[in-house]
Write a structure and sequence with these properties.
10-stranded mixed beta sheet, two-stranded antiparallel sheet, alpha/beta, 64% helix, 12 strands, Rossmann fold, elongated, single chain
Length: 580
């Protein structure tokens, strides 16, 4: 499963190199490769400089030593330029690739109301915002770093093995000649350290995945407390929230400690290798140097090449923790795309067997034909064969409970596809929606009032009139202020605000789900009167309850349920997954 998710992430992310972004992607890739080769060339030049400098030092050739110092300064400038260029190219590739991936994920998440459907279905892809923002960033950044690391390791190993083979030469022991003995010793040494790192680091992938999931869960719970701060404070739930967060934090710390434990075991080998990697080649070359078969410069050149080869061959083991981080982040991104795939598949399966079809009305009316909405424990139906709602008509939806009414409203709004029948709406109709918790976007109060249609010019008088009628006169002076309006306005003010929005730009169809639940009875009746008198041409579909609502509507539409013991095959998949 893990390898499959990694392959699916690679298949998804490699789309950056095709389509509209392919030119930029290939240019950035070419720049990264050019600087990678340039940096490797600089490293090879430094290796040759070691022989040049130490041979001059051994021969006490002052002139050559001074020349070597000048060459070292030139190599430093060249290496620095290559490093800076490579850094710019690599980070620009990471940023643009991450931008493409985030754009792709956001489009899939927002397409066809998937963001809403996933929020009401129980899936493993919780916290989609963290998966798109944080996990997507880490997956791309680590993928670039690791890919370049592998390529650099391969090129460095090939380049420096040839140097080590030539400079190290052969070694004769007890009459046996070992050609390229330092290359053989380097491979054996690297195999031992890599095997040790693999055995110690193998559990890290699972431990890091568990740690990342714990971090995401803590962020999610903290966000929930922030978003529901008012109701938690009013209910005195501080201690309960603190207790739950303490449990989540304790579990996260436990997971971190397991990561630290396994990483600590790996560091025994890493710490030892830091000393041995530079000592072993000197020990191996010492017999030939003492026998005057190798100059000091050749010994230092061989030692440097040995370390470069050893680092290249040990690259995978040295980067075990980063690989674990990449697996964790890429898996979390893939879980989100898998959840969207399964959602689309379920909707596709339903469409083949009779899902709710959202179509275009043959006239300017809304037609509900043989509508049946699949729920967990039954089907929700209209009391009658067919319902037709005309322009300007105000219809009150009645049902046994709030769940039924909300399910119907969401189906008419095009948010719920599970079931059967047809919902036909006028083509091009302007549809507005008012819920119990209206949405106020970031920005000024004026922006929120005109949301989502910002293109129309609306007079100041109309804005002030709507706010005054809805009991929000005190907000008129703050129309151009930017603030956290969702947190600043009370629940009743937000519902009044939603009505003001509808009065400012009357829609063709207004769908309302308990829009006055936070208002007192007098305020509710006043807003209902505005709905009836000031929106004469607007078709209203209103799911609400309360005394006296009937007088503001032209008729009622009754919803009935047919209960079943076991969900039908057609409805089992989505309804069993519903978050209740």
């Amino acid at each position: 499963m893990s390898s499959g998710r990694s392959r699916r992430f690679l298949h998804l992310s490699l789309g950056f190199w095709s389509g509209a972004t392919r030119v930029r992607a290939w240019l950035l890739t070419l720049a990264v490769l050019v600087f990678l080769v340039a940096n490797l060339a600089a490293a090879l030049a430094v290796n040759l400089w070691n022989k040049f400098f130490f041979d001059a030092l051994e021969q006490k050739d002052t002139r050559t030593v001074l020349l070597s110092i000048g060459l070292a300064l030139m190599l430093a400038l060249l290496s620095g330029a290559c490093f800076v260029g490579g850094l710019h190219a690599r980070m620009r590739l990471q940023v643009r690739w991450r931008q493409w991936l985030a754009h792709t994920l956001i489009n899939r998440w927002l397409a066809d109301r998937h963001f809403y459907q996933l929020s009401i279905l129980a899936t493993e892809a919780d916290n989609p915002e963290a998966r798109i923002a944080e996990d997507g960033r880490l997956a791309i950044e680590l993928l670039v770093d690791l890919s370049l690391g592998v390529l650099n390791a391969v090129l460095a190993a090939v380049s420096f093995i040839s140097i080590l083979w030539v400079v190290g030469g052969s070694l004769t022991v007890a009459g046996y000649t070992i050609p390229g003995y330092m290359v053989l010793a380097c491979i054996i040494y690297s195999a031992i350290t890599s095997l040790g790192m693999f055995l110690m680091g193998r559990p890290l992938v699972l431990r890091v995945e568990e740690k990342s999931a714990g971090e995401a869960q803590l962020r999610y719970e903290l966000t929930r407390v922030k978003d529901n701060a008012e109701i938690i404070a009013l209910m005195g739930g501080d201690d309960n929230e603190r207790a739950r967060l303490d449990v989540t934090l304790a579990e996260l710390v436990h997971r971190w400690l397991r990561v630290i434990t396994w990483q600590g075991r790996m560091n025994w080998l890493i710490g030892s290798n830091l000393i041995l990697a530079s000592t072993v080649p000197l020990i191996l070359g010492a017999p030939k140097y003492l026998a005057d078969e190798m100059t000091l410069g050749s010994l230092m050149q061989a030692a440097t090449a040995f370390m470069q080869v050893q680092v290249a061959l040990n690259w995978l083991a040295d980067n075990a923790l980063r690989l674990a981080d990449w697996f964790s982040s890429s898996h979390r991104v893939t879980q989100l795309t898998d959840a969207i795939d399964r959602l689309e598949e379920s909707l596709g399966t339903f469409s083949e067997t009779g899902a709710i079809r959202l179509g275009v009305s043959p006239d300017d009316r809304v037609h509900l034909r043989q509508l049946k909405i699949a729920l967990r424990d039954g089907d929700l139906m209209i009391d009658g064969e067919e319902a037709v709602i005309s322009p300007g008509e105000k219809v009150l939806i009645k049902a046994e409970g709030g769940t039924e009414k909300s399910a119907f409203i969401h189906a008419v709004a095009g948010l719920w596809s599970w079931g059967s029948g047809e919902i036909l709406r006028p083509q091009g109709a302007n549809i507005a929606f008012i819920s119990q918790r209206p949405y106020l976007p970031l920005g000024t109060l004026r922006t929120a009032l005109l949301y989502p249609d910002q293109g129309h010019e609306v007079s100041e008088e109309r804005l002030r009139d709507a706010l005054t009628r809805c009991g929000l006169r005190h907000l008129i002076l703050r129309l151009d202020d930017t603030d956290q309006w969702t947190s600043l306005l009370s629940s009743s003010e937000q519902q009044r605000f939603a009505f003001a929005r509808a009065l400012i730009q009357p829609p063709d169809i207004l769908i309302m789900d308990e829009p006055t639940s936070a208002l007192d009875e007098l305020s509710q009746l006043k807003l209902m009167e505005y709905m009836r008198n000031l929106l004469p041409g607007t078709m209203v579909i209103h799911a609400g309850h309360g005394t006296g609502l009937e007088q503001f509507h032209d008729r009622e539409l009754v919803l009935v349920r047919s209960y079943r013991d076991v969900p039908s095959a057609r409805g089992a998949a989505p309804s069993d997954a519903l978050k209740r």
